[in-house]
Amino acid sequence: MPRPDQPASIFLRQFWGFATGAALLIAVMVSIYSLSNGIENVFPHLFYLPIILAGYAYPRKGLLFSIVAGGIYLGLVYYFQYPVVEAIAAGTARFYVMILIGAVVSYLSDRCQQEEQKYRGIFNFSEAGTFLFNPKNDVLLDVNARGARMLAVPDRDLRGMSFTDFWKRQDTADLFLKQLNQNRSIENLEVELVRRDGAPLWVLLSGSNLPGEMVICTAVDITARKAAEEQVHRNENLYRAIFENTGTATMILRDDWSISLVNTQFERITGYSREEIEGRVKWTEFAQGWVFGACTEIPAEGQRTCEFKFRDHQGRTRDGTATVLHIPGTTEYVASFSDITESRTAEAMLRASEEKLRVVFNNTNDGIVVNKFDTTGFPSRFIEVNNTACERLGIPREEFLQMTPADLGLFSFLQDRPDLLTALRARQPVTFEVTLTAKNGVRIPTEISSHIVTLHGEDVILSVARDITERKLTEEVERKAYDQLERNIQQFATLGDHIRNPLGIIVGIADLEETAASTKILQQARVIDKLITKLDTGWIESDLVKGYLQRQRQKEGGNGK
Questions:
Q1: Which of 101, 142, 180, 427 is least enclosed, having the fewest CB within 10 Å?
Q2: What percent of the chain stands above pLDDT 70?
Q3: Closest listed residue to residue 30, CA positions, set 51, 48, 46
């Protein structure tokens, strides 16, 4: 029942005041009529009603009201029955009884209001939504502000609505009411409700039966917690999917280095099953021969990467590399490792191959250099050079790698031969002869063959420089011999004429004399003529040799040699 000191309408406050005043007025009027007509036994009881009403409605002023009402009653007794001692004594006694009744009612009413205000405050200002409803017809009788906000409905509109209308599943609501009826109470039931705006609302619901066929329920909003749990569940599924499907063998390690969890890749790489490893083997037993011992001393925040050896299920020793990371907020670690046995073997083979290549590169008889193009398309700084080139030019390797073709005197030569650069840029091999000057001043005739190769994704110039000093000396000797042969052939060509002219004169004189001596002279002249004929034949053969040599020189000159 509403009280004047509770939040209520002005009408209710006025009603309580009017009812109390009317009851007092009726009691006074009936008392006057009764005392005037000699009736003394009924009217005093009428004063108890306004006193009780005042004490109940206004506990702070109930005692004062009972004194006033009792005083009015006592005044009427004195007025109408004085000096009857018995009547005055009885009236005085009733006066004190009225005061006592007013005090008791006011006290009890005040205590009730305090208790009601206390529970009303708990009801209204609780962080949990509180709902009071009738279990028989499921009608909400009262709801606090928190509950109204949770359901997104004004509290004044909630009263009279069905509580289970907000449940997402009706069978869950029926089960809740059934269990509540059987057990009289229920605690911490997770229920999904639906707000008026359609948004889901997860609550932790507790309910209990109250006297008068009422049920009180408290609901704690756990929507955020459920969302977090769902997110954690999704994250767990995501991380488990990553954990299981990553291409790296992965483990979860406890602080004592025992392996608590391994993934499928671990089984594939090692050949061990989960049952053989999880909870049975320590990582420090599985991994042998740490390259970096710090992998057994991981800080609370940080990670270590280590190389190690392990023995697979078939007993083969394998090489591995592992990264061990502390999981924040726990005493566990996550470790992932890869089998690098094949890559290590490939690295060893590559190093051996590179070493063989370097031995060949540095011990060939020809100088080999590698250089890049500059921004103008001209050969720039050398990026590699072999030992032969360094030794031949007397330039230390470190100094050579700081030089360019221009520093070797090739700049002006390449400028004079733009056809070479054009062909080279078109990825055509080019061969040309230059004379290089060593650091000690010795000039070295050199034949250079250059072509474009791709090194580490970049076009570079690979040049092979051959010392052609001996070839040049041989060519000089051949040239001198050819010149001498040509002079000799020219001498052969004129020698016959020089001999035949005087021989013809001698033969003519001998024919004129016709003596034994002339006959002898003619015989010797014929012998000389035969010798001259042989010289002419030799000259023709020498001329053929000369022609062949000329053609060979022209052919070699065409090849640039």
A1: 427
A2: 78
A3: 46
Going by pLDDT thresholds of 50, 70 and 90, the confidence category of residue 238 is confident
Task: Please provide the average confidence, as pLDDT, over all residues in the chain.
Answer: 78
DSSP string, 178-238: HHHHHHSEEEEEEEEEE-TTS-EEEEEEEEEEETTTEEEEEEEE-HHHHHHHHHHHHHHHH
C-alpha–C-alpha distance, residues 382 and 375, integer Å: 15
CA distance 463 to 452: 9
For residue range 118-156, what is the model confidence (pLDDT) as tens digits? 666 556 666 688 888 888 888 888 888 888 888 888 877
Residue with tokens 């009826």: 181
Helix (H, G, I), strand (E, B) or coil at 288: strand
Whole-number Å distance between alpha carbons of 412 and 417: 9
Distances (CA, A) of 278 to 281, 315, 318: 7, 19, 21
Rounded average pLDDT over 103-108: 85
- For 433, the enclosing helix (H) or strand (E) is strand 430-437
Joined tokens for residue 443:
């000039």
**DSSP string of 324-356, one letter each residue:** EEE-TTSS-EEEEEEE-HHHHHHHHHHHHHHHH
Say if CB 451 and CB 462 are below 8 A apart.
yes
**Could you give the maximum distance between any two Cα atoms of the chain, in Å?**
233
Residue 299: what are its φ and ψ, rounded to 5°?
-70, 165
Q: How far is CA 488 from the centre of its chain?
A: 89
Per-residue pLDDT tens for 293-327? 556 666 566 677 878 888 888 888 888 888 888 88
379-432 pLDDT, tens per residue?
888 888 888 888 888 889 898 888 888 787 775 666 667 787 788 778 888 888
Mapping DSSP to helix (H, G, I), strand (E, B) and coil, where does residue 336 land?
strand
Retrieve residue 308's tokens: 């190690």
What's the pLDDT score for residue 285?
78
- Helical spans, DSSP H, in 410-459: 411-416, 418-425
Which residue shows structure tokens 């955020």?
Answer: 224
d(CA 98, CA 551): 158
C-alpha closest to that of 20 among 114, 106, 112, 116: 106
**Distance in angstroms (rounded) separating the CA atoms of residues 160 and 154:** 12
Instruction: Pick the closest to residue 49 from 71, 24, 80 (CA basis).
Output: 24
pLDDT at 25: 87
Question: CA 5 to CA 57: how far, in whole Å?
Answer: 8
Token pair for 266: 């671990």
Task: Quote the CA–CA distance of 415 and 388 in Å, as a whole number.
Answer: 27
Q: How far apart are CA 71 and CA 130, in angstroms?
A: 47
pLDDT of amino acid 366: 85
Please tell me the distance from the alpha carbon of residue 278 to that of residue 259, in angstroms, as a whole number: 5
Q: Is 311 exposed, middle or buried (0-12, 13-18, 19+ CB in 10 A)?
A: middle
Checking if the pLDDT of 499 tops 80, the result is no
Over residues 249-267, mean pLDDT = 86
Token code pair at residue 534: 């042989």
The partner residues of 430 in beta bridges, in order of sequence, read 450
Where does the pLDDT of residue 560 fall: very low under 50, low under 70, confident under 90, or very high at 90 and above? very low
- Do residues 143 and 159 lie in contact, with contact meaning Cβ atoms separated by under 8 Å? yes
